[in-house]
Design brief:
Blueprint lengths: L5 H30 L6 H29 L4
Subcellular location: Membrane
Pfam families: Romo1
Protein name: Reactive oxygen species modulator 1
Length: 74
């Protein structure tokens, strides 16, 4: 498989998007859990849900953007 293939670009886009989305989701989830005073162990669950949801959505969009951009040649 070529190093600059379309699949490699899309995979890299999904991975980078997931990492950035996960980091932002963890920060935002922690902020909201503290702000809304989520009780006890539910904080961990809430932060995890926010982190995974944000990572999935941002990874999906960055992967789709990479796929659209993959067909263009300059």
């Amino acid at each position: 498989m070529a190093r600059d293939s379309c699949l490699a670009r899309v995979t890299a886009g999904v991975a980078v998007g997931g990492a950035i989305g996960g980091a932002v989701g963890a920060v935002y989830g922690t902020y909201e859990a503290i702000r809304y005073k989520v009780p006890g162990i539910l904080k961990i669950r809430y932060i995890g849900q926010t982190t995974l949801g944000s990572a999935a959505i941002f990874g999906l969009f960055l992967g789709a953007g990479s796929l659209i951009h993959c067909g263009k040649s300059y």
